Amino acid sequence: MNQEWPLWEVFIRSKQGLDHKHVGSLHAADARMAIENARDVYTRRQEGVSIWVVESRYMHASNPDEAPSFYDPMNDKVYRHPTFYDLPDELKHM
Amino acid sequence: MPVQDMEHIFQDKIDQEIRIEPKDWMPEKYRQTLIRQISQHAHSEIVGMLPEGNWITRAPSLKRKAILLAKVQDEAGHGLYLYSAAETMGISRDEMINQLHTGKAKYSSIFNYPTISWADIGAIGWLVDGAAIMNQVPLCRASYGPYARAMVRICKEESFHQRQGFEILLVLSKGTAAQRRMCQDAINRWWWPSIMMFGPNDDASPHTAQSMKWKIKRFTNDELRQKFVDVCTEQVKILGMTLPDPDLKWNEQRGHYDFGAIDWDEFWNVVNGNGPCNRERLAARVKAHEDGAWVREAAVAHARKRQEREKRVA
């Protein structure tokens, strides 16, 4: 019987006000152990103020092979960018 | 630990510009204030799609149609960012939607005015989004992390909204006499409601002091309004148009433009449900939600079916 601990993805918030960022993964028997292990593996130099762990099997990802068609609808919409609009130089604060 | 000590530590963090995150202890009043403010902001984005949506099918060119569609899509997106930020404080999406639909939660009064000409889409971009940006830029430094981060994203996307609006007016201002009249008429109608967007005068805004102490707000309503008036008074010259305020005058001593008295009776009348479009807007929201019920149910049924199929395969 496979007794390997499940894999967990680890996210660290480096400072209050910033997003949690994915830093890597590790094995642990449960969420509590995963958080403690993450502390030992990923924050030995005070890299974080908050840790999130998510069991890897609950992570769903987009397929990189499908990227061209997946993001295709955004390719031809330059007008979503402020630089698309031609406005006089003397216009300030916009 | 006694609550007073917790409050002391909390205020200390705020004073040191340390952001508050969802799992941190916070006073109940702070939580309630932010839930109200963020959800009201989210509702404004969602209801704000309606006055502009009115012109998507009638925009004067394919280019303008695509731009307007993109802008309205952004507003839907901004509503979603904000609803999620509010959800981190423990209120559910359904609760918020319900508060909007029953009239318990408000949204920005500006969206209760009608969009009767194409120039209104220009005026909304320039003035309404301009006022919103003036309000929102300081919110990128609000003390509550998820709200501040949502605002950073929103402000970045909002910039094109204002520019496309000004460009619409600029084109009209160089057009025929009728187009110029239309441009001026839109500015006349949107100017006063836009400067009302900053809310009541400081002496009539009892919550401002607490919100500033908590660093939810960084500037008072009147400070932001003054900044907006100063900026717009210069910008309108480029259009060769005027702002509809005979009292608008540069004040050398203050280093600001003086402006006329705001009709607060009109403001409160619209807030309290009696603006030109209040009933229409709310009815449109409720109808969209009810008409969409079958889609939500179908999506859940489809997900369940897929799950069962995968289970059978495995």
Mean pLDDT across residues of chain A: 94
Amino- and carboxy-terminal Cα gap of chain A: 65 Å
As a percent range, the share of strand residues of chain B is: under 5%
Count of DSSP helices of chain B? Answer: 13
Beta-strand segment tally of chain B: 2
Biggest β-sheet description of chain B: 2 strands, antiparallel
Mean pLDDT of chain B: 96
Radius of gyration based on Cα positions of chain B? 22 Å
Structural class of chain B: mainly alpha
Please report which band the strand proportion of chain A falls in: under 5%, 5-15%, 15-25%, 25-35%, 35-45% or over 45%: 15-25%
Order of strands, main sheet of chain B, comes to 1-2
Order of helices and strands of chain A: EEHEH
Distance between the termini of chain B: 52 Å
Number of helices of chain A: 2
Shape of chain A: elongated
Highlighted features:
heterodimer, A: 94 residues, alpha+beta, 3-stranded antiparallel sheet, 17% helix, elongated, B: 314 residues, mainly alpha, two-stranded antiparallel sheet, 13 helices
What does this structure look like?
Chain A has 2 helices and 3 strands; from the N terminus they run E-E-H-E-H. With 94 residues, chain A is α+β, with helices and mostly antiparallel strands. Chain A has a 3-stranded antiparallel beta sheet with strand order 2-1-3, covered by helices on one side. In chain A, strand 1 and strand 2 (21-27) form a beta hairpin. The longest helix of chain A is centred in the middle third of the chain and has 12 residues, at 31-42. Chain A is elongated and about 70 Å long. Chain B is mostly helical and 314 residues long. Chain B has helices spanning 3-15, 28-47, 49-53, 62-87, 93-101, 118-139, 145-173, 177-196, 208-213, 221-239, 264-274, 278-291, 293-313, and strands spanning 249-251, 256-258. In chain B, strand 1 (249-251) and strand 2 (256-258) form a beta hairpin. The relative contact order of chain B is 0.10. The chains are: A alpha+beta (94), B mainly alpha (314).
